[in-house]
Write a structure and sequence with these properties.
It comes from Umezawaea tangerina. This protein folds into two domains: 8-109, no CATH class; 120-336, no CATH class. Strands 1, 2, 3, 7, 8, 9, 10, 11 and 12 form a nine-stranded mixed sheet that branches. By secondary structure, it is α+β, with helices and mostly antiparallel strands. 31% of the residues lie in helices and 21% in strands. It is globular. The chain has helices at residues 8-20, 29-36, 40-47, 54-63, 85-102, 154-167, 183-186, 200-208, 275-283, 291-302; strands at residues 120-124, 173-177, 189-193, 213-216, 226-231, 234-238, 241-243, 246-258, 266-272, 308-317, 320-322, 332-336. α2 crosses α3 (40-47) and α4 (54-63) runs antiparallel to α5 (85-102). It contains ten helices and twelve strands.
Length: 341
């Protein structure tokens, strides 16, 4: 979302919702736009075929799930906590229908959709003073200080945070540094970015779950490290490819399993030997050109398993990350559990 090509079927349905949902209630485009915090021309473009973002479709589903949305002018989109169980069920059906018409698929089939609508916390490492240059933006005493400049894997965080929020409009999505998590944060759905060198929560999770993968730490910046995997009782190390100091191929780990801190929640790890590998693992399931086939790959390989992992090759071209396609065998270097499909 948004989808570039127009969707006449979705446009017709959105207009029908506005005009036909409640007999005797005539909702104008201006009234609905005001409720959504949008402009009338923007809402008109949606009814003409332009596909709204998923967050806007969620607003439609919430608004038309209850007549209380139009009890008092100006009309409003109720808070999800106000919906009854019946209204919430209607909202979910409407959202699934609208997402299907938009051509994006129902959010319930998206890897990053969490149907329990519980809080989601993305966790990154925070750079030490030695790891970041001292500028006014990284100096806490400077008026120009920007905290995000001190975060590791910032490109991955921005890519993933926006995507998770768009497909989970009913959930609170937070991001935290690994050393600033509260006890309550640990019990949410956790998404961990970065590896055992910096992200102490990734280290703790890997120690607590059964996984035949061990990330070799990089005690010195000149070390390339790698992922040690156990196959057939023997171990091997899968290393990135660095030529004359230039990263050609990174190696990344993707893992999804039951959270060791709350059995009703999940933990997901996107972790490269370098930052570009972490971004590659993230983009495997956010990039609109590859996420559907990669999601299908995970479902085909690991259906019925609560925990699974893929070690993937991440190709770097002119410094740019190429999203890995897991349906291409050369990009899947190791997977666990093995022998599925």
């Amino acid at each position: 979302m948004p989808v570039d090509r127009p969707s006449p079927a979705l446009a017709h349905r959105l207009k029908a919702l506005r005009l036909e949902s409640w007999p005797g209630v005539a909702i104008t485009q201006k009234q609905l736009a005001t409720a959504f915090g949008a402009s009338s021309p923007l809402l008109s473009s949606w009814e003409a075929g332009k596909v709204p973002p998923l967050a806007r479709l969620a607003a439609y589903a919430t608004f038309f799930a209850t007549r209380r949305s139009v009890e008092v002018e100006p009309y409003r989109v109720p808070d999800l906590s106000e919906l009854t169980a019946e209204e919430n069920a209607l909202r979910e059906r409407l959202l699934e229908e609208l997402a299907e018409l938009a051509g994006s698929g129902a959010p319930g089939r998206s890897f990053w959709y969490f149907p329990d609508r519980y809080d989601i916390t993305i966790v990154v490492a925070q750079l030490t003073e030695e790891q970041m240059p001292l500028t006014p933006y990284t100096d806490p005493l400077s008026p120009d200080y920007v905290e995000l400049y001190t975060y590791a894997d910032l490109d991955s965080l921005i890519e993933l945070h926006g995507h998770i929020r768009s497909v989970n409009p009913g959930s609170q999505v937070h991001f935290r540094t690994a050393t600033s998590l509260s006890p309550d944060d640990y019990t949410t759905h956790l998404v961990l970015l970065g590896g055992v060198d910096w992200n102490v929560v990734t280290t703790d999770v890997v120690d607590r779950v059964e996984l035949p993968v061990n990330q070799a730490q990089r005690p010195d910046v000149s070390d390339v490290g790698g992922f040690e995997v156990l196959e057939g009782g023997e171990s091997r190390v899968i290393e990135p490819l660095v030529v004359h100091g230039k990263l050609i191929q990174d190696v990344a780990q993707f893992y999804r399993g039951v959270s060791p801190y709350n059995k009703k929640r999940t933990v997901t790890i996107c972790n490269g030997q370098y930052g570009r590998g972490t971004l590659g693992a993230v983009r495997a399931l956010t990039d609109s050109k590859f996420r559907d086939r990669n999601e299908a790959y995970l479902k085909a390989r690991f259906a019925g398993h609560d925990a699974y992992s893929v070690i993937t090759r991440v190709t770097i071209v002119n410094g740019q990350v190429v999203t890995p396609d897991w349906t291409s065998p050369e990009n899947v270097l190791f997977e666990w559990p093995e022998g599925l499909g």
